[in-house]
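Work Package 4 report. The design task specified in the project plan requires that, given a folded chain encoded as structure tokens, an amino acid be chosen for each position. We show below one input record used in the internal validation round.
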């Protein structure tokens, strides 16, 4: 079972993609920036979860 950080990170990335797309469609630069930030945060969280998974699998 994947670490919860991986699941949450993937969800945050998806939400960020949606936010960015809505921001582009509406011309809302703030929403676009928030979407990009959410995507980066999700990627970091997903990476942390991957490291945790790798460490757990080694033991």
């Amino acid at each position: 079972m994947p670490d919860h950080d991986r699941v949450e990170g993937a969800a945050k990335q998806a939400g960020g993609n949606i936010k960015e797309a809505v921001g582009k469609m509406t011309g809302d630069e703030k929403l676009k920036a928030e979407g990009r930030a959410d995507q980066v945060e999700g990627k970091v969280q997903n990476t942390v979860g991957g490291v945790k998974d790798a460490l757990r699998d080694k033991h």
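The helical segments are 4-26, 29-58. Validation will be extended to a larger panel in the next phase.
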